[in-house]
Each structure stands twice: as structure tokens, then as C-alpha cells.
Design goal:
The protein is α+β, with helices and mostly antiparallel strands and 554 residues long. 45% of the residues lie in helices and 9% in strands. The chain is elongated.
Length: 554
């Protein structure tokens, strides 16, 4: 008989109760009251069945090789694309970015490297030609020195195109060119395309039959007329002697052996530069205050051998005309000469006709116009003083010399030769010749123009040292020599150019410094010449543009 406890345990649990649910949940692993999913490797109602693995697809060797080939091609394509990009970048840099890099900007005008290469090449070609021509005037060591200088310029020419280096003097010249062109209006000047063409034709015409005179020569005052008449015979004699010397030398001087570019001999006569108007040419004779000899001399500071003109002006050797030529005939001659010049020189400079006009002719004409303007403003006479000086480095020595001169004024020349550190005038007793106002620095000028003839000053200090000055003569209106006019024009032009530079907006990869710092006293133009120096000091140096004398007041 069932007990109450057994009946209780047999009673069904209430639906939804936790206990009933728990009790009714089948135990893990039990198969009672439910169907289990067939176990892995088993099927319902059957025994154990092993799992079958899908067989791997076999890749043939041909397919493997094809796959490797495709990968290789992909790698090569990527590498080729990268190489093309690198080469394209290098080519773009070499042929576009480097040539078109802006080296300077002047009032919005860009000076790019490609134009610099052309300008620099033109400068070097003219230097080579002129050094070779100068060698014709000398023999022995001096001739070899000029030939060596030509070869050095030739070696530089070979390395200009494509170079990323920049010559400061050349870039400063290009900057100044733009200042000259842009500054014409400030002087009331202008130039047209026809003016430029006339300028080119005139430069390449027969020198004995020019197309026109850029700067009309004023009628000479009596003193200057007398000087010109009195020295004409001497000039002819000097030119005859130079011609005879040249006739005795080889017609064409070969460049020294080396790897530098050889300028064709036929180009020598057509690329030699001529001095611009007002700049003077050659080294003047001591007895010729108006017209100087055209024979170049290797004198330090002289305008020719050390600083050849780089304007690309030709000098055509041709006989003097026996009949007057028409303008059309003159232009035909100029055109033929220019064609010869361009066919030989443009290959060396990478220029074309437009480049020559833009980089050479227009700037050269602008400079001539400015020089001509100041020539006309200066006149032919001015107040002048003839003086001499003794320059020393210390106040103590200057005081000592002053005391010695007070005791014996006649020793001035002797003491100048012994103690003066001005090597340009010490050999001549300190003689400065005649000079006008505006040539010497202000402290020196003020004292010199205040002295009476034969009066000796107290020591005067300038940036060069201590001067003791003696006035020898003073005239209120004395005729100017050609060299004095040239020096005054140069000083006035420099002052004008400095004003233009100060007012301009200039940016450059180098600091534009066309005017050198004043380091050494330079005598006025009329000072007696000291014995000429050897050109040894300039061998290995590069010809640079001539600047105004440092003695000019700035």
C-alpha cells in the first residue's frame, strides 16, 4: 500500500513550475524523451561513417609557370612605372625647373637661369676673343699670360650650360641692365624697337662709316680744340706703331692646348667689344688730354686688358671708304657682319636673334643713352684744383710729416715718395693732377678747394687714412680732358644707378652689390701715370665690369 510520501512524490508537478521544469529537463547525455542530432561521424539509425575529405585540385606545371610569369610581369610593370616617374622627374627638373628657376626679380621682371646661361656665355665668348687679341700686342711671357687667361675663360664657357652655380658679377650686371632699361623714363629718355635695330646696325657697320653717332659730339671749346689738334699727329703715330707691331705677329693666335672651347679665329674680329659712349677706350697718352692711344696696356685699373667689354660689339677690319656710302649700303654691310657674327657666336652662347636683342642690344643701348645724357649735362669745363698729397695710416706719422714740412715745404715730393701709402701717386711725389668737385671724397675735396696755391693743409682724415694736401693751382673754369669727363660721367651714372637701385623692388638669390666697397685710394683721372704694372696680378682672375673710381664722392 502506497504511503503518503510515495503518493506525493508521484504527483505530477504543476505546469510552468521551476521545479517541474527542472525535473523534466533531460540530463546531459540522456536520450530519454528526445531525439538527439546524429553525432559527428554518425548518421541516425546507423553505425559510424568516416568523413570524406574533398580531393585537392592539381595545378599543372604550366599553370604554375604562368602564374609566376604574371607576378613577374606585375613587379616589372610597377618597377618600370617607378623608373619612368623618376626619369620623368629628372628630365622635368633638368629641362624645365632648373632652366626656368628665377634667380632675381627686378620691379616684377624675372631673370631666369636659362637667360643667365646665355648672358654668361656671351660674356665669356667676348672675354676669350679680347684676351686673344690682346696677346697679339705682346710677346713672350705677357703674351702667354693673356693666352692663359683666354683659356681659363674658355674652360668656364664649357661648364656654363646646365650649371646651377651663379657668378655674382654676371647676375649683378643683369640686374643693373633692368635698372638701366626701367630708369630711362626718370631722365626723360626712351627707346623704340627701331632705335634698337639702328643701334645694332651701327655697331656692326664699318667703323669708318657708321650709320649714326649715338651721342652727338659737341663743338670743342678752344682749349680742347687745341689739345685735339696738337695730339692728332701723336695719335696717328701711335696707331701706326700698333699696326706695325700687329703685322709682325701671327694673324691668328691659337688658344693654348686644353679642353676648353676654342673660339673660331674668324670670330675674333667680329666679337671684340668696343667701349660704350663716354667710357673711353684704350689707355690715354700722358701728353694727350683729349684723345688717347688705342693700344691696350696691361696696367692695373686700366679699362682694357683687365676688364674687357662684354657687350658683344664687333670691330670690323675693313679699308677706309673712298666714297660716301648710302644708308642702304651701310645697313647691308651691317647685316652681313651681324649674320657672320651670329652664325659663329650664337652656337656657343645658345642664343637666337631675339635673345641677342633682349639680353645684349637693349641693355647696351640703355646704358649708352644714360651715359650720353650725363655727358651732355657735364659740359667741357669746370672749376678745378691741381693738388698733391701724402697719405699715411696714423695720426702720429701725419703730425710728424706736417712738422717736417713746416720746417721745409720743399721736401713734399721727397716725403711723399718715402712715406705715402698711396702707391698710385707716391712714385710721382703725390701728384693728383687736376680734378673737379664731386670726384674726391667730401673731407678731402672741402680742404683741397679751400687752399691757396702752395698752401699745405693740416692732416685730414678720410676712410683711407690721413692726408696732408698741398694745392698747386686753382682755376674757376678749366677745360676738362676726355678722361676727366669720362670719370665724371661714371661717377654721375653710379649715383643715378644707386638711386634707381634703392627705389627698385629687387629680390635675388644673391645680394645685389654691383658697387664694390671702398678699400683703396684711387687717384683722379688726370693724375700722372705711375710706371705700368705687370699683368701677372690679373692672371687667373675673371674680367668684371668697370665701376666708378672709389675716390668719387658717393
Amino acid at each position: 500500500m502506497p504511503t503518503p510520501e510515495s503518493n506525493k512524490s508521484e504527483q505530477p508537478s504543476a505546469p510552468g513550475s521551476a521545479k517541474g521544469s527542472k525535473a523534466g529537463k533531460p540530463k546531459s547525455g540522456s536520450t530519454t524523451g528526445s531525439k538527439s542530432a546524429p553525432a559527428k561521424g554518425r548518421t541516425a539509425g546507423s553505425g559510424t561513417i568516416e568523413k570524406k575529405e574533398q580531393p585537392k585540385k592539381r595545378v599543372s606545371r604550366r599553370e604554375q609557370d604562368a602564374q609566376k610569369t604574371r607576378v613577374l610581369y606585375a613587379v616589372l610593370a610597377v618597377a618600370g612605372a617607378l623608373m619612368v616617374l623618376v626619369l620623368a622627374g629628372q628630365a622635368l627638373n633638368q629641362y624645365y625647373f632648373i632652366p626656368n628657376k628665377t634667380l632675381a626679380t627686378v620691379n616684377g621682371h624675372d631673370i631666369i637661369r636659362k637667360d643667365y646661361w646665355k648672358y654668361r656665355s656671351n660674356t665669356l665668348v667676348n672675354q676669350i676673343s679680347q684676351y686673344q687679341q690682346y696677346a697679339n700686342f705682346f710677346q713672350g711671357d705677357q703674351q702667354q699670360q693673356y693666352l692663359a687667361m683666354a683659356q681659363q675663360a674658355s674652360a668656364q664657357l664649357d661648364n656654363v650650360w646646365g650649371s646651377t652655380s651663379t657668378d655674382p658679377n654676371t647676375l649683378n650686371q643683369m640686374i643693373d641692365d633692368q635698372l638701366y632699361i626701367g630708369g630711362l623714363e626718370s631722365l626723360g629718355l626712351s627707346m623704340t624697337d627701331q632705335d634698337v635695330q639702328n643701334f645694332i646696325d651701327n655697331r656692326f657697320s664699318n667703323p669708318d662709316a657708321p650709320l649714326f653717332t649715338p651721342t652727338p659730339t659737341p663743338t670743342l671749346i678752344p682749349e680742347r680744340a687745341d689739345w685735339a689738334t696738337g695730339t692728332a699727329a701723336a695719335d696717328i703715330a701711335a696707331q701706326t706703331a700698333a699696326a706695325e707691331a700687329a703685322a709682325g705677329s701671327p694673324e691668328a693666335v691659337a688658344s693654348p692646348a686644353g679642353d676648353g672651347t676654342v673660339v673660331p679665329n674668324a670670330v675674333e674680329d667680329s666679337i671684340a667689344g668696343a667701349s660704350p659712349a663716354g667710357a673711353g677706350s684704350g689707355t690715354p697718352s700722358a701728353s694727350s688730354p683729349v684723345a688717347g692711344s688705342s693700344v691696350p696696356e696691361p696696367v692695373a685699373g686700366s679699362p682694357s686688358p683687365q676688364a674687357p667689354d662684354t657687350s658683344g660689339t664687333p670691330v670690323m677690319a675693313s679699308p677706309s671708304p673712298t666714297v660716301a656710302l648710302t644708308e642702304n649700303e651701310i645697313r647691308q654691310t651691317a647685316t652681313a657682319n651681324f649674320d657672320t657674327y651670329s652664325s659663329q657666336v650664337f652656337k656657343l652662347t645658345h642664343m637666337n636673334h631675339d635673345d641677342y636683342i633682349r639680353l645684349v642690344a637693349r641693355p647696351a643701348l640703355a646704358r649708352d643713352l644714360v651715359n650720353g645724357y650725363f655727358e651732355q649735362q657735364i659740359g667741357q669745363s669746370a672749376e678745378q684744383v691741381h693738388a698733391r698729397h701724402i697719405l699715411v695710416g696714423t695720426k702720429e706719422l701725419a703730425d710728424k710729416i706736417e712738422a717736417e714740412l713746416a720746417a721745409d715745404p720743399g721736401r713734399f715730393e721727397e716725403l711723399a715718395k718715402e712715406d705715402s701709402i698711396d702707391t698710385g701717386t707716391a712714385p710721382t711725389g703725390g701728384d693728383l693732377g687736376w680734378f673737379t668737385r664731386g670726384v674726391m671724397v667730401a673731407p678731402f675735396e672741402d680742404v683741397a678747394f679751400s687752399l691757396q696755391p702752395d698752401e699745405i693743409s693740416e692732416p685730414v682724415q678720410t676712410q683711407f687714412g690721413w692726408h696732408i694736401i698741398q694745392a698747386l693751382a686753382h682755376e674757376n673754369d678749366r677745360a676738362l680732358t676726355d678722361e676727366q669727363i669720362s670719370q665724371t660721367v661714371s661717377a654721375e651714372t653710379d649715383r643715378w644707378l644707386t638711386d634707381q637701385r634703392d627705389a627698385a623692388k629687387i629680390s635675388a638669390i644673391i645680394e645685389p652689390t654691383p658697387t664694390p666697397a671702398i678699400e683703396q685710394f684711387v687717384p683722379p683721372a688726370d693724375a700722372p701715370q705711375a710706371p705700368p704694372a705687370s699683368p701677372e696680378a690679373v692672371v687667373g682672375t675673371e674680367a668684371t665690369p668697370a665701376f666708378a673710381t672709389p675716390t668719387a664722392a658717393g
